[in-house]
Amino acid sequence: MKAAVIVSPGSNCDRDVQVAIRQSAGTEPIMHWHGDPELPNVDLIVVPGGFSYGDYLRAGAMAAHSPVIREVVTRAESGVPVLGICNGFQILTECDVLPGVLMPNAGLKFVCRDVNLRVEVTDTIFTCNYRSGQTIRIPVAHNEGNYFADKATLDRLEGENQIAFRYCTTDGEINPHANPNGAARNIAGILSKNRNVLGMMPHPERMADPALGGTDGRLMFDAVVKALAIA
Amino acid sequence: MSIISPQIIGEHGLSSDEYDRILAILGREPNLTELGIFSVMWSEHCSYKSSKFWLRKLPTKAPWVICGPGENAGVIDIGDGKACIFKMESHNHPSFIEPYQGAATGVGGILRDVFTMGARPVANINALRFGEPAHPKTRHLVSGVVEGIGGYGNCIGIPTVGGEVNFDPSYNGNILVNAMTVGIADVDKIFYSAAAGVGNAVVYVGSRTGRDGIHGATMASAEFDENLGEKRPTVQVGDPFTEKLLLEACLELMATDAIVAIQDMGAAGLTSSSVEMSDKGGVGIEFDLDRVPVREEAMTPYEIMLSESQERMLMILKPGHEEMARRIFEKWELDFAIIGTVTDTNRLILKSRGEVVCDIPVPPLVAEAPEYERAWTRTPLSPVLAASDALAEIDVSPARTLLEMIASPNLCSRRWIWEQYDHMVMGDTVQRPGGDSAVVRIHGTDRGLAITADCTPRYCVADPVEGGRQAVAEVWRNLTASGATPLAITDNMNFGNPERPEIMGQFVGCIEGMAEACKALDFPVVSGNVSLYNETNGTGILPTPAIGGVGLINNVSEKMVVPAFRSVGDDILLFGETGGHLGRSLFLHHLGNGNIGAPPPVNLHAERRNGDFIRAQIDRGLITACHDLSDGGLLIAIAEMALAGNLGAELTSPPQDIPELAWWFGEDQGRYLVTTKLSDEVIAAAETAGVPNRIIGRTGGAVLTLADGDSISISTLREAHENWFPEYMATGKS
């Protein structure tokens, strides 16, 4: 499997994702500089977390206009798997690959903690290693993770099974106490209509090593590697 | 006619003696730019004029020390070709005036000190002191400082892995914000600041120079009064995004062979960086100020030289490497300008619009900087308070008191703070905030650095020597308790006005105690910072020598321990001597009588013996959890371990010869609490090593039960422990 990690000025989880991909795939991902519009042919594109352009203007707003992002959008539309994590999710909503926006956290503070996620769909290359309804534990670390979209969009996401993860309690219950940022309907991650793009606020790459507290995130990278190796 | 009036001299914080010295060095009257340069270089903040004499008494050498105090940060050898570079620095004055920017730029400044030397920063920690919770400014300051530290560290992507926070009324008008950065470099790729090579280009990189922070160093060298608002323009504004670019660009250039010397522009900006580089290298520097990238038009030489705009660096490049370096900085969208050359004149010469606007001989500017051996008086000591006297009129239940204390401002959970810090980015935080030390792995290996910061100011004020000893010993203990071999420290000396003999006496005493402890524990000081004049309207802070320490764990996956009860049925053992020392304890403080008696003495011989013993038992794999005893004593430590492991314990009766409350809440030093499944083996080793030991209970259940039947559930403890901070910040409860 060949993967590319998009590196913008201010990306800071690029190395963490590189480590996670290397571990699951056994190969090195390409670390692709945002200013280079010539993106090689790859099986997976990851837009990692961080503070691209310092989150100035709006989180993800400036990076969405990077030279390489136009190519990422084209690839996403042509079916190449794309994973946007945290700031990467924000960028993917800014360039309309995914619907909705990520607003400042309801508590108006940065939140860094492990959260529980309920796996809502398992028919994707990202989530096929989980059981439907399974509770997994993965950390969040963000200022703007409060997912918002209008009611029609949210209903459509639900109706088309495009919600990948929701914040939940340890028992898998969806309620406001389990929601770290005020996200609409406790949404932590969503899929594109053709299910090849996943945007999520939690950081699966931070739970891919038992020494760091768990391996629930590693299962996602393993799943992608396996699916793409077969494909 | 002279433009330098006595009033202007006074406004620059210079005494008339100091001004006479300037006249002698120059052989003429300075112009305003030159006066400004002398004033910042000779400020307390930059010259250490009151503290230098005493700082020399601290041990700074060990076989593993590569570079001690004097450079941007200290450097130690951590094996496998790697060096650890670290330092702690204060940003107290600016943080009180403008908490968000003050704290943020404090983090930015210390990060630059570390990556200037060639290290990639891997962790930040901090030591914070605020006024009493009920003070009207405290909530606003806590909120702003925490947000500022998080705002900077989170954006640049360096984890903030821990710290310490205390509240005390003495900080009502002067909070302390001490930030520490730890970085890792290759031992053969460490960069220093001594300029060299006559004719080499002097290069300016990073942000443009603006009018912010002019005279920040002078402001940080004076007391506060009621006209504080006027000082706001002296606070700098940080841009962590630019710093991230600067970090990556510098490390990219450092991987080549282009740099002769490099220095960040911190306090006193372009002035101190150029003066220090030329002085250390024994050369001169000539600048064309018209080439300095500026943010605003018509900036005067005075403003350019004294600006403290953030995220800037000064470098000397090898000839022929300028264009390659320029390409790297332009890729990262940063300014790059050749602003001068290295000369053989030993003079700092500044030109602006074709005219020489400054011509100062550098060696006397540095070597003849004032140094004061200020008058000092030894702090009068309080007599040791016998436990029976301390407890004469006290009748409280241990369990009830535990519940109250664990929910008090100085002992409650700091989760509200550290959840605002990204403490996991970089993927190597193997011990998260909340334990004795944070531990980060050295990337790509199973080796780890244990990092901690500590100080007990209420001991220091009662007996500075004992307090100084204790601060160093406690840091050593924190590192030991996580399984690390303690290696070295950085110190951040926060005190009041050194012109008052009793304050200077606190400083001298703390240094004396620290030096003894460093020597006894082989724990040298490799970097540090002094912050004096932490006073408002004549009232000083508690003497606060904050100590940051680093230790090494060779095998994190097997040899790191955490302070959390791990499994049911483990024996809980206490090591070290318990005498029931209550003087200056949090227990008495909680009951409203904390300022009496002597602080607990630190027996450095026992300290070393007990710590070496604990480390050896961890190394043998016999220990399932370990926690050092500190604020609040034994029962607090037990509760902290129970909370961290979400597991209760049944405790045995206190010994007959110590009053019960003194046993549970005394703050005797040099003690550790461990759990083990193999207590016979551990006790046998303790007997051989001469370490006092006692089985005090066994883990299990969801309740802490005292021998007299008094008990308290872990969930009740947790609620009390976790709720204070968020409720205080949200509702104004205090």
Give the integer mean of the pLDDT values of chain A: 96
Q: Percent of residues of chain B in helical segments?
A: 25-40%
Radius of gyration of chain B: 26 Å
Q: How many separate domains make up the residues of chain A?
A: 1
Indicate the CATH topology of chain A.
Rossmann fold
Q: How many strands appear in the DSSP assignment of chain B?
A: 28
Shape of chain B: globular
Structural class given helices, strands, pairing of chain A?
alpha/beta
Quote the beta fraction of chain B.
Answer: 15-25%
Largest interface: A-B, 30 and 33 residues
Strand content of chain A: 15-25%
What is the number of E strands of chain A?
Answer: 11
Let me know the average pLDDT of chain B: 95
Alpha-carbon Rg of chain A, integer: 16 Å
Give the key terms.
heterodimer; A: 231 residues; alpha/beta; Rossmann fold; nine-stranded mixed β-sheet; 11 strands; 23% helix; 24% strand; B: 734 residues; alpha+beta; seven-stranded mixed β-sheet; 28 strands
Explain briefly what this protein structure is.
Chain A is α/β, with parallel strands linked by helices and 231 residues long. Chain A is built from five helices and eleven strands; from the N terminus they run E-H-E-E-H-E-H-E-E-E-E-H-E-E-E-H. Chain A has a nine-stranded mixed beta sheet, with helices on both faces. In chain A, strands 5-8 form a two-stranded antiparallel sheet.
